[in-house]
Amino acid sequence: MGKLTISAEINKPVDQVWEAYNDPKDIVNWNFAHESWSCPSSENDLQVGGKFKNRMEAKDGIFGFYFEGVYDDVKPLELIKYHMEAGREVETNFKALNLNKTEISVKFDLETQNPEDMQLQGWQAILNSFKNYAETKL
Questions:
Q1: DSSP H or E run through 71
Q2: What are the tens digits of pLDDT across the range 111-127?
Q3: Do residues 66 and 53 make contact, with C-beta atoms less than 8 angstroms apart?
Q4: pTM
Q5: CA contacts within 13 A on the Cβ side of 60
């Protein structure tokens, strides 16, 4: 299994970016790759050993699944590491570029069911959705 990295620059301070990225009341507003999808529920216990569980659903109701993981490392305003059930790992870094700009980079293990470019596009689309939410709604 290889790893891929995506990133985005968010025109907001790192503390606001961190909060919106991790608060379930915000997560449900941005955690989807396409407007035909939604995230109707989110639970997040952001601490080492804590778990998150996000419901992902097609808006037409035809398909849905839970995206879940367990936190391995949390450094507020800097780093989140977690693993998913299949052992795949994800590392998210937050870097304040200046007082009003934050870079988020996400490195994730590939899965075996979908092509690499599809996974890259999907994860990047979700991060782009977060960027749009953070810059227009916060």
A1: strand 64-75
A2: 999 999 999 999 999 99
A3: yes
A4: 0.95
A5: 4
